[in-house]
From TrEMBL:
PANTHER family: CYTOCHROME P450, CYTOCHROME P450 12A4, MITOCHONDRIAL-RELATED. This is Cytochrome P450. The keyword Heme applies. InterPro entries: Cyt_P450, Cyt_P450_E_grp-I, Cyt_P450_sf, Cytochrome_P450_monoxygenase. Pfam families: p450. One of its GO terms (molecular function) is iron ion binding. Keywords: Heme, Iron, Membrane, Metal-binding, Transmembrane, Transmembrane helix. Heme binds at residue 480. Its cofactor is heme. Belongs to the cytochrome P450 family. It comes from the Eukaryota.
Length: 536
């Protein structure tokens, strides 16, 4: 029956039809209400296998405690719960609509989830949905046997030896960054106001381009709002519209979110992710064709070693589409994570003149000026300089690139005395772990590079009693395979920049709160004043 036909029915018939509709809808509405009451209040209180765990405060709305997952790192809810709720390794939280969740708080529980039973868990589906937009179905997103297979394929490219071979590349790009910055100064004594976050993105993109694909994107010699660096910056830029779209994507089907005509984010994301996917596929196909034609020997790429993509083309049976997924993962994760760490290192140094001067003295005493020598400092030297490594590791501790992640149980798993059911979540608030006074003392939230130095040598643990006190790269089979790459790259970049320049905050520290959709960076883009310090 059409709307017009319905309108032409006699009024008695219309009333009768309305009564039938109401009679049909009332039981449905009652069922929805009863189910909601059961799911949100009755099941969690009386039937959940986690009901005897200590509960985080609040969580009585249909949203439960879930909004704590989406707050900025300056929202200390998760830190406060871990610190103040008495517990024996787990705190109970309520997911949306009463779902089971626990916040892991002890090394024993973290070891169970991340190491011993790691493949009983997957990343949260909604997190994977968002990550897939910018990472493709590469190592970070895939799960289970596919993840095991991909990790085995890539393991050789990220071992200690291959990473050491990349230090000359890291140093070369670091010195190119120095030259690019120098061109912005009218004279060596100038104090220049620089949006340093953009420079960090450009240099790390250039590094991953050569290391992973044998391609120099040359972003440092292009305007920051153009080319690949500009596209990434636009894709990951934070504003109110994007933040709402990002949040809505966790709770609604993506086709609904993308068709709500009140924000530009879906269109921007679709346009830019399509371009990145096309570029990734083009890179993969071109490299396969070049190797087949003998134009690029897979044994020796531009770094003097096989770049990652050449090795994958030669040594695996991955299709072009599968290679493209890995390319997209390397592109995004390979530059966004280190660019985030680098800008936080510089912002931290800009607030501590004493540490900055001591670091500069250490660098100049051990490393030749790039103005006098093109030779890269040995990897073994950079890996052992105590204050340089203290600064880098303290930055990675205080400012984890991804401050929160979660795991969803795909198999019922015993966690301590409690059985986490299938679908239950384990929340992993990395930011809170890394700043816990329980592990790091009362100055846990302070930038103290010297905690990583014992008797004049780098100590690799910061004085913490457990390796689970530092969760930036996670642990176990799902740990970040590129952590050695990121640390080596960060060492070279910090050494070059701190050796040449003095940094100051360009604005009050209140203008530098952490924010981000995928990675966390200063809100004002890392605006810094810099000037050349003569003598290196």
């Amino acid at each position: 029956m059409t709307g017009a036909q319905l309108f032409l029915l006699p009024s008695e018939s219309q009333a009768s039809l309305a009564r039938h509709v109401v009679r049909a809808l009332v039981p449905f509405a009652i069922s929805c209400i009863l189910y909601s009451l059961w799911q949100i209040y009755v099941y969690p209180a009386f039937f959940s296998p986690l009901r005897h765990l200590p509960m985080a405060p609040g969580g009585y709305s249909p949203m439960g405690h879930s909004m704590a997952k989406f707050g900025t790192p300056t929202d200390t809810s998760l830190e406060d719960w871990i610190r103040n709720v008495p517990n024996d390794g787990m705190i109970r939280a309520k997911e949306v609509f009463g779902g089971d969740a626990v916040i892991a708080t002890s090394p024993a529980i973290l070891k169970r989830v991340l190491v011993e039973d790691s493949y009983n868990f997957t990343k949260d589906d909604n997190i994977r949905k968002i990550l897939r937009l910018v990472l493709g179905d590469g190592l970070i997103v895939v799960e289970g046997d596919v993840h095991k297979s991909q990790k085995q394929i890539l393991r050789g490219s990220f071992g200690t030896g291959p990473i050491k071979d990349l230090y000359p590349l890291f140093w070369q790009k670091s010195t190119i960054l120095l030259t690019a910055l120098q061109s912005k100064l009218s004279s060596p004594s100038d104090l220049k106001r620089v949006p340093f976050g953009r420079w960090c993105e450009q240099v790390t993109l250039d590094i991953i381009g050569v290391a992973a694909f044998g391609i120099d994107f040359d972003s440092l010699n292009k305007p920051s709002d153009t080319g690949l660096a500009g596209e990434y910056h636009e894709l990951l830029r934070v504003d109110t519209s994007r933040a709402i779209w990002f949040l809505a994507s966790f709770f609604l089907p993506q086709w609904i979110v993308n068709n709500i005509p009140i924000w530009e984010a879906p269109g921007v994301a679709d346009r830019l992710t399509r371009k990145l996917n096309e570029l990734s596929l083009e890179i993969a196909q071109n490299r396969r064709a070049e190797i087949k034609a003998g134009a690029v020997p897979a044994e020796a790429g531009p770094t003097g070693r096989a770049d990652v993509l050449s090795g994958l083309v030669k040594n695996t049976t991955l299709s072009d589409a599968q290679l493209a997924d890995q390319v997209l993962t390397f592109l995004t994760a390979g530059h966004e994570t280190t660019s985030s760490a680098l800008i936080w290192a510089l912002v931290s140094l800009a607030q501590d003149d004493d540490v900055q001067q001591r670091l500069r003295d250490e660098i100049r005493a051990n490393i030749s000026s790039p103005s006098e020598s093109d030779e890269a400092p040995p990897a073994a030297l950079l890996d052992k300089l105590p204050l340089l490594n203290g600064v880098c590791h303290e930055t990675l501790r205080l400012f984890p690139t991804v401050p929160f992640t979660a795991r969803t149980a795909v198999k019922a798993t015993q966690l301590g005395e409690f059985l986490l059911p299938v679908g239950g979540q384990v929340w992993l608030p990395v930011w809170a772990y890394n700043r816990s006074p329980h592990y790091w003392g009362q100055n846990a939230s302070k930038f103290v590079p010297d905690r990583w130095i014992t008797d004049g040598s780098f100590n690799n643990n910061g004085g913490a009693p457990s390796n689970y006190a530092q969760m930036t790269f996670l642990h176990g089979p799902r740990h970040c395979i590129g952590q050695g790459f990121a640390k080596g790259e960060l060492r070279c970049l910090v050494a070059a920049l701190a050796g040449r320049y003095h940094f100051e905050l360009a604005e009050d520290i209140s203008k530098y709160p952490p924010e981000g959709l995928v990675t966390v960076k200063p809100q004002n883009g890392g605006l810094l004043n810099l000037r050349v310090v003569k003598g290196w």
